[in-house]
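Bench notes, afternoon.
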Amino acid sequence: MELKLSILTASDFPYGMAMESFVRQMALGLYENNVELEVVRLHGNRLYNKNDTSIKCSNFLFQKPLKNEFLKFFEVLCHVLFVPFFVFYRKVFTRDYAIIMYGLDRAYLVFPLTLFAKLFGLKTFRVNTEIYPEHTYASSWWRKPLIFFNKLQIKYFDKYLDGVIVLSYYLKKIEVENGVKEDNILLIPHFINVRIKTMENISNEKNTIDRIGYCGNPSIANGILDLIDAFLICQHKRVNAVELIIIGEITPNVEREIKRRALRNVVFMGKLPTSHVSEQLQKCSILVNPRRLGVSADSGFPTKIGEYFAAKKPVVTTKVGDLNLYFKDKEELIFAEPNNADSICNSIEYILDNREMAMKIAKKGNQWAIDNLDYINNSKKLIDFILKS
């Protein structure tokens, strides 16, 4: 059968940060598997990126989110009131088979979407990517109700969806505990383009300085300060033999902490276009995921792990979340203890001191990504799940 789907996403599309990357690769995988698809941006085109993909993209209601805090209540109300019209349009005019919700985790919107979809005969699926710390989305007193609506969705309403896609065993366990049948849960770690061509002329060149790379949101929770401290330890042992590159936008609070450290051979590249990120990763000798302990780390699968594997470079990662369930130390990657700069440094030094072994580990990591993270293969699994649900 010809399958028509829509992805309603709280992220932008097609480019941005981790959320946008996930939706882009999931959508491209579905498209490559001959699904007729449209991505609908709940909050409009916030990042003003041009859609250079072959996938149709539209906005849910507004072209961009309202910035005034008081008007945001009006925006939410409009979104809720627009739900029946949106579902009616998707059923009658675009003739969708199902709606996939990404980044929508609040009952005041997901429940009406689920209810009206059932009335109109549309299937609904929700992607549950991770559990976010409450302070990240409810820092002000007037945002505290969001905590209630987030918990309400998982506790009472996810079980009425036709299916839930989760990225970790941690999330799967939570969904089962709250009444979702195991048959209605699909565990897919990620959708990653692992088919990129590596630049052999760059990756094999002999450098006098080993580049240690980090790509992502360089936040304290993601372990950026632990990585910098680990680099300083390595640098002290290997004078002028290593450098650290950090790809991602530094926030003011992280910048203040960084300035307290005497840094040299550290390059802050800022936010780069997606096409340039891969090129920079392939110029590195080692790629590091230094994420700290926390509920986000337990519940999600790091995007950067897949991107690192795709670059065919040896990966150092802290042992958080599901990673220890998928990998063995010094097999597909090298583990370090979270919240521990000394341990991260030791893992980096293992690679520097065991180059042949490190390249074997990198190849195994790349193969694991091909087998488990490839966006086209995982989209086939998602299609089968949708059709069987």
